[in-house]
């Protein structure tokens, strides 16, 4: 039918084409330093062009001997949502359409921790409401993340310091990770995100809070741009009742270890074996 | 056989191409109206999709709470249709049942059209279609074997290639009045049987493996997918074959049609049984996981959008089962076709929206957002279906005359025209 | 100072390792020392108290004040305690513990810690109260009174920030 020569000629051509294009753009997972720097320079150039602002994109890597963990005191949280909006401001989340990386759920004390009877849209004049308590939920930075398992292009992975990150330039927006996440922690840019120009935070990280494009997934990164510089995430610092704690779980002196060792600690959906590094506890 | 040069191959192929174009352009009024209808849907779909590309997936009704919807539902259903070609292959080749062997090729053409539609539905669903190449090594990175979606990409494309190679080989050889090369075709056809089971098992595993979604995280999902696939796929084929018999010289025995319908009845029984088993587990165990099943069949509070669809699917499936299990209604062409439509519609509902939406409603943190497709989604989906039907129509327009010996390049014919294709599948 | 704080926490952890079941509370073994804290949030001009009180004779009778400090409404175990249970009667520039030991205002946490021992331990570990600064650096402390009004320590209800917008079919 088709001659053998024709077949071999076209196969050779295809192979050559593939090898040549193998040197094209790649994902930033374990990217060598020089390629990473070049990619970041390109990002900063594009941000200058599209947003007219000087966005600084950090390439800070994980600190050796550090695995981040978070602890949230459910006996203290009053559901004021200041963490939600501090996060929005710090992490350049879209204002319209609205994206919140933290969602606070109001529950009844009688029913306990039960998401089938939880309300994230509570809006009383004052919080806390009588007989209710509050659980904020964001990315749990699991050690056994179901989301990174399912990504078909390998655009999301867990870094060595435990933060689950997304390469926004590699994500194809298939949203399989959103289906896989048991905590509703991942959010999608259903259209072009918008941030008022004067509210853009220019201190960003390439895997964290740099402005995202349309059609990709995003989520909490434990404020990677802050954490890798030794600072607390924005939500920890803004909480007016001190319900949020953060630190290095590998450090025996850390607040996180103290909480795990002395307080009644729980994780959400423990039976799913995701091994979250986000703990909830009762301090009192 | 003399060694062909590249020039010979091109000359022979251009003859085939020109002949095919002539066949495609020749048709009666019904044919042209059908093409015009499909063309209109395709244009509408293209326009809707370009709006979606410009604005973003926000033009669909999908949101964070229900992040998969109509597109993925259609994709899932069509993978089942593609897998169903094996329903014909098993009796034809493994049990050597001659009446079906003549029509296996049409199952393969249907599989090609279905897989094309599947790939298109995936393309329109992803947020960054311009980054589709990220899936293709060595340009991109395919997260194999960890991601089931990576498996799906591979097996779907492989299944497409297998069916494409077999169908085009058989037809092209028949066009030249030659028998197909057994050593090439038979292993591929036999391979397509486990592959068909494979593509639908992998597609089921896409959902099955997600512990975050208890409605999907059920062991029976893969068997249930196969069962519902084996009823819905052949349903289309049965209708098409009857149309071919009506409008062309194409012949197909009533026995073959009846046999396929019988196999579909058994598949539908299995489908209903597995649904029943699922319902028992959910309602009897009565855990919070019941919420998803409850949302589908009864709604939750004021949220009842999908309830009429749920019960329609149940009714249609039961009707189809009844019509196909009884030999009387199976042999009566009117009830047979009602059964075909009922199967198709019933499985379309319960495997498309009935699988995706209840799996995501309520969401992982208990919120209920009621999803149903927007006009954009409907237009794009209709456009994709139109592409699939168009592809199938055009392939049939060429394949049927080849099979009847009417479209042939006689210069190198080694056997009499009529005998070639009719015997093509029966040759041992 | 940091090494001392580390020493305390290490000591606590060491004790915990011995108490294998992890439910024994940590024990503060070394004497409290001066921690770096922000200045006490005095009202303008109220400190030093001795400006007024130096020349006055202390009236130790438990009563409701009428002449001065009438703006202070005590809602802190007021059934059992009153001003002079914390404020030193003879030297108003300091507070005092139950033993009578004087405690300067910038070490007021020692006084709070008398009754609120668990919270004091947690606060020293960095677990009670708002954390700012560096997770990998020296712990910075706020005084208890930087957040809690010592006379009405319970937090008032706050107006919550706006609820998220529920998902909407139409985005355009």
Primary descriptors:
heterotrimer; A: 284 residues; alpha+beta; Alpha-Beta Plaits; 4-stranded mixed sheet; two-stranded parallel ribbon; 8 helices; 26% helix; 17% strand; globular; B: 428 residues; mainly alpha; Formate dehydrogenase/DMSO reductase fold; 17 helices; disordered C terminus
Please give the structural blueprint.
The complex is a heterotrimer of chains A (284), B (428) and C (172).
Chain A (H helix, E strand, L loop, with lengths): L3 H18 L11 H19 L4 E3 L9 E6 L8 H9 L12 E6 L23 E6 L8 H5 L5 E3 L5 E3 L9 H5 L6 E2 L14 E3 L11 E2 L5 H4 L6 H5 L5 E5 L6 H8 L1 E3 L11 E5 L2
Parallel strand pairs in A: 1-8, 2-12
Antiparallel strand pairs in A: 2-10, 3-4, 5-6, 7-9, 11-12
Chain B lengths: L5 H19 L4 H27 L14 H14 L1 H10 L3 H4 L2 H22 L22 H28 L6 H27 L12 H27 L6 H32 L4 H8 L9 H19 L1 H5 L1 H19 L1 H8 L14 H29 L13 H8 L4
Helix pairs in contact in B: 2-16, 3-6, 3-8, 3-9, 3-15, 4-6, 4-8, 6-7, 6-16, 7-8, 8-9, 9-10, 9-14, 10-12, 11-15, 12-14, 14-15
Chain C lengths: L1 H17 L31 H4 L40 E3 L5 E3 L3 H8 L1 H9 L18 H4 L25
Describe the structure in brief:
The complex is a heterotrimer of chains A (284), B (428) and C (172). Chain A has 284 residues and is of the alpha+beta class. Chain A is built from 8 helices and 12 strands.
The CA-CA distance between the termini of chain C, in Å, is 58 Å
* Uncertain runs of chain B: 416-428
Largest interface: A-B, 56 and 56 residues
Q: How can the largest sheet of chain B be summarized?
A: none
Main beta-sheet strand count, sense and barrel state of chain C: 2 strands, antiparallel
Radius of gyration of chain B: 22 Å
Question: Strand arrangement, largest sheet of chain C?
Answer: 1-2
Q: Termini distance of chain B? A: 20 Å
Query: β content of chain C, as a range?
Result: under 5%
The number of helical elements of chain B comes to: 17
Which blocks of ≥5 consecutive residues of chain C have pLDDT under 50? Answer: none
Shape label of chain B: globular
What does this structure look like?
- The complex is a heterotrimer of chains A (284), B (428) and C (172).
- With 284 residues, chain A is of the alpha+beta class.
- Chain A contains eight helices and twelve strands.
- Chain A has a single domain, classed as Alpha-Beta Plaits (2-Layer Sandwich), CATH 3.30.70.
- In chain A, the strands form five sheets. Chain A has a four-stranded mixed sheet with strand order 10-2-12-11. A two-stranded parallel ribbon of chain A has the order 1-8.
- In chain A, a hairpin with a 5-residue loop joins strand 5 (156-158) and strand 6 (164-166).
- The radius of gyration of chain A is 22 Å and the shape is globular.
- With 428 residues, chain B is mainly α.
- Chain B has one domain (36-424): Formate dehydrogenase/DMSO reductase domain (Formate dehydrogenase/DMSO reductase fold, Up-down Bundle).
- Chain B has 17 helices and no strands.
- In chain B, helix 3 runs antiparallel to helix 8, helix 3 packs across helix 9 and helix 9 (221-247) runs antiparallel to helix 10.
- Chain C is built from five helices and two strands.
- In chain C, strand 1 (94-96) and strand 2 form a beta hairpin.
- The longest helix of chain C has 17 residues, at 2-18.
- In chain C, helix 3 packs across helix 4.
- Helix content of chain C is 24%, strand content 3%.
- Chain C has helices spanning 2-18, 50-53, 108-115, 117-125, 144-147; strands at 94-96, 102-104.
- The model of chain C has no long low-confidence stretch (mean pLDDT 83).
- Chains in contact: A-B, A-C, B-C.
- Chains A and B meet through helix 1, helix 4, helix 5 and strand 7 of A and helix 1 and helix 7 of B.
């Amino acid at each position: 039918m088709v001659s053998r020569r024709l077949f071999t000629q076209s196969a050779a051509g295809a192979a050559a084409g593939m090898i040549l294009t193998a040197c094209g753009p790649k994902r930033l997972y374990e990217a060598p330093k020089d390629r990473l720097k070049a990619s970041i320079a390109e990002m900063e150039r594009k941000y200058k062009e599209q947003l007219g602002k000087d966005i600084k994109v950090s390439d800070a890597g994980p600190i050796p001997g550090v695995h981040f963990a978070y602890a949230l005191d459910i006996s203290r949280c009053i559901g004021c949502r200041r963490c939600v909006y501090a996060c929005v401001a710090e992490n350049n989340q879209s204002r319209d359409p609205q994206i919140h990386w933290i969602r606070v759920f109001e529950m009844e004390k009688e029913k306990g921790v039960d998401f089938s009877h939880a309300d994230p849209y509570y809006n009383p004049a004052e919080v806390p409401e009588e007989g209710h308590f509050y659980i904020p939920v964001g990315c749990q930075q699991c050690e056994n993340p179901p989301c990174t398992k399912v990504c078909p292009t390998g655009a999301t992975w867990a870094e060595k310091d435990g933060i689950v990150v997304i390469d926004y330039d590699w994500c194809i927006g298939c949203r399989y990770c959103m289906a896989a996440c048991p905590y509703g922690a991942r959010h999608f840019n259903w259209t072009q995100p918008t941030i008022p120009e004067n509210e853009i935070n220019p201190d960003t990280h390439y895997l964290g809070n740099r402005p995202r494009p349309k059609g990709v997934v995003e989520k909490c990164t434990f404020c990677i741009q802050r954490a890798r510089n030794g600072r607390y995430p924005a939500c920890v610092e803004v909480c007016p009742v001190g319900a949020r704690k953060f630190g290095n779980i590998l450090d025996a002196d850390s607040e996180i270890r103290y909480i795990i060792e002395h307080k009644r600690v729980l994780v959400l959906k423990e039976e799913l074996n995701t091994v979250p590094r986000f703990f909830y506890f009762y301090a009192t | 056989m003399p060694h062909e040069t590249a020039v010979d191959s091109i000359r022979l192929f251009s003859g085939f191409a020109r002949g095919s174009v002539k066949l495609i352009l020749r048709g009666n009024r019904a044919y042209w109206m059908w093409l015009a209808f499909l063309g209109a849907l395709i244009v509408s779909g293209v326009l809707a999709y370009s709006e979606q590309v410009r604005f973003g997936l926000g033009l669909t009704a999908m949101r964070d709470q229900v992040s998969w919807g109509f597109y993925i539902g259609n994709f899932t259903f069509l993978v089942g249709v593609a897998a169903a070609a094996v329903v014909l292959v098993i009796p034809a080749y493994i049990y050597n049942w001659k009446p079906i062997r003549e029509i296996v090729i049409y199952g393969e053409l249907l599989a090609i059209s279905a897989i094309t539609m599947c790939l298109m539905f995936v393309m329109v669903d992803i947020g960054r279609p311009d980054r589709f190449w990220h899936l293709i090594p060595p340009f991109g990175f395919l997260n194999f074997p960890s991601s089931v979606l990576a498996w799906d990409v591979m097996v779907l494309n492989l299944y497409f290639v297998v069916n494409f190679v077999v169908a085009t080989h058989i037809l092209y050889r028949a066009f030249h009045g030659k028998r197909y090369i057994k050593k090439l075709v038979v292993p591929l056809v036999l391979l397509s049987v486990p592959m068909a089971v494979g593509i639908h098992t992998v597609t089921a595993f896409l959902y099955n493996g997600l512990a975050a979604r208890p409605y999907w995280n059920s062991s029976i999902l893969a068997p249930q997918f196969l069962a519902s696939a084996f009823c819905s796929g052949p349903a289309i084929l049965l209708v098409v074959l009857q149309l071919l018999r009506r409008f062309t010289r194409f012949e197909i025995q009533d026995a073959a049609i009846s046999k396929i319908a019988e196999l579909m009845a058994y598949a539908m029984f299995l489908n209903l049984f597995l649904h029943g088993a699922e319902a028992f587990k959910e309602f009897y165990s009565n855990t919070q996981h019941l919420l998803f099943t409850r949302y589908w069949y009864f709604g939750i509070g004021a949220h009842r959008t999908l309830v009429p669809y749920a019960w329609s699917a149940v009714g249609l499936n039961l009707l189809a089962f009844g019509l196909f299990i009884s030999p009387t209604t199976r042999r009566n062409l009117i009830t047979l076709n009602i059964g075909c439509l009922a199967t198709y519609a019933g499985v379309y509902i319960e495997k498309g929206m009935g699988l995706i939406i209840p799996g995501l409603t309520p969401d992982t943190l208990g919120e209920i957002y009621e999803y149903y497709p927007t006009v954009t989604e409907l237009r794009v989906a209709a456009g994709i279906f139109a592409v699939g039907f168009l592809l199938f129509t055009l392939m049939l327009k060429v394949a049927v005359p080849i099979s009847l010996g009417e479209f042939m390049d006689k210069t190198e014919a080694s056997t009499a025209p009529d005998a070639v294709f009719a015997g093509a599948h029966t040759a041992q | 100072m940091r090494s001392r704080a580390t020493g305390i926490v290490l000591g606590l952890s060491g004790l915990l390792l011995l108490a294998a079941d992890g439910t024994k509370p940590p024990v503060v073994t070394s004497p409290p020392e001066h921690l770096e804290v922000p200045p006490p949030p005095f009202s303008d001009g109220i400190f030093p108290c001795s400006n007024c009180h130096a020349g006055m004779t202390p009236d130790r009778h438990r009563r409701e004040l009428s002449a001065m400090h009438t703006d202070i409404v005590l809602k802190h175990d007021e059934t059992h305690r009153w001003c002079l249970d914390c404020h030193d009667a003879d030297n108003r520039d300091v507070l005092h513990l139950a033993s009578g030991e004087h405690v300067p205002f910038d070490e007021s946490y020692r006084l709070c810690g008398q009754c609120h021992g668990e919270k004091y331990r947690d606060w020293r570990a960095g677990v009670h109260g708002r954390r700012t600064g560096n997770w990998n650096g020296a712990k910075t402390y706020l005084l208890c009174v930087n957040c809690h009004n010592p006379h009405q320590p319970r937090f008032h209800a706050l107006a919550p920030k706006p609820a998220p917008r529920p998902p909407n079919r139409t985005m355009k």
